[in-house]
Recover the amino acids of this structure.
């Protein structure tokens, strides 16, 4: 089910709600029935969005869960194309909108988002957004927290730090989001072995395989526990 063809940051929250309700009306689905039919996920991503795509694929044919919106702080992020390929609405925002207005929160509320998934999103989540979605924002981190977490620890920075530390195993952590980078309650961790001849690309590959295998499944488990 598609609410909006595309949401841009120039739209107000009221515009977005009106467009969404119009789309529902055109499909002859009452707003009340729509809200009961499925639970709704919003994905935040800053880059390519390979994890986002795996989640989109996982729920593509679901009768219970819908990816209702993909949001990014990067107008050049490839995740926008991935969302377009699945006909999922997108929204691009800047730092001012995200940290100094309620536009993003209002948009999420108007689309009745139940769970926020951070899939390679690089900005710290503002306190007011966390307050609106307590226990309903999750993130994936490409290391075994609490090691190799915190501000600036993302992507290759993490993998290089793991290599420099001489670690014999790496892994991923899926966790709830709080007001600090990578410090929320752990949900799930998975490990992989680091061999002596593993280079950066091999470590990245092993980590991504774990992410793609486990993240959609964990998202599925969490969203189904959330009551409408």
């Amino acid at each position: 089910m598609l609410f909006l063809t595309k949401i841009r940051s120039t739209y107000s929250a009221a515009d977005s709600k009106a467009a969404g309700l119009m789309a529902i009306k055109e499909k002859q689905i009452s707003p009340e029935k729509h809200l009961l039919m499925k639970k709704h996920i919003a994905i935040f991503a800053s880059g390519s969005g390979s994890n986002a795509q795996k989640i989109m694929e996982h729920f593509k044919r679901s009768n219970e869960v819908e990816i209702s919106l993909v949001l990014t702080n990067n107008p050049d992020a490839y995740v926008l194309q991935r969302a377009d390929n699945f006909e999922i609405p997108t929204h691009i925002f800047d730092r001012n909108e995200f940290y100094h207005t309620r536009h993003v929160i209002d948009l999420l509320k108007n689309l009745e988002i139940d769970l926020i998934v951070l899939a390679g999103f690089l900005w710290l989540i503002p306190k007011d957004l966390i307050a609106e979605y307590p226990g309903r924002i999750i993130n994936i981190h490409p290391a075994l927290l609490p090691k190799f977490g915190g501000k600036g620890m993302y992507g290759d920075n993490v993998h290089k730090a793991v290599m420099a530390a001489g670690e014999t195993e790496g892994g991923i952590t899926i966790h709830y989001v709080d007001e600090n980078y990578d410090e929320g309650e752990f949900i799930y961790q998975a490990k992989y072995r680091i061999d002596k001849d593993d280079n950066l690309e091999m470590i990245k590959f092993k980590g991504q395989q774990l992410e793609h295998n486990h993240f959609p499944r964990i998202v599925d488990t969490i969203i189904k526990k959330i009551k409408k």
